[in-house]
Design brief:
Length: 73
């Protein structure tokens, strides 16, 4: 999980930059700057936590449990 923190941060920042660039192209530049600074900054953390929790769920499904039905007595 610790090793996944950097790629998750890069993906979140890349997504924020892409959305902001699209706003610069299609909407007013002032709105894009406000969006970039305020809203996108606030939504990056929940997105990153969600990605890390999704990775944790995926890794927990891939791991093998120590309990085996034949060993339980």
């Amino acid at each position: 999980m610790l090793g996944a923190a950097v790629p998750v941060a890069v993906v979140c920042n890349l997504l924020r930059l892409v959305v902001t660039a699209l706003l610069f192209l299609s909407v007013d530049a002032d709105f894009a700057v406000r969006f970039f600074h305020d809203f996108a900054g606030w939504t990056m953390m929940p997105l990153a936590v969600g990605l890390l929790l999704g990775l944790l769920a995926l890794l927990s499904r891939l791991s093998i449990s120590d309990k085996h039905p034949l060993r339980e007595r």
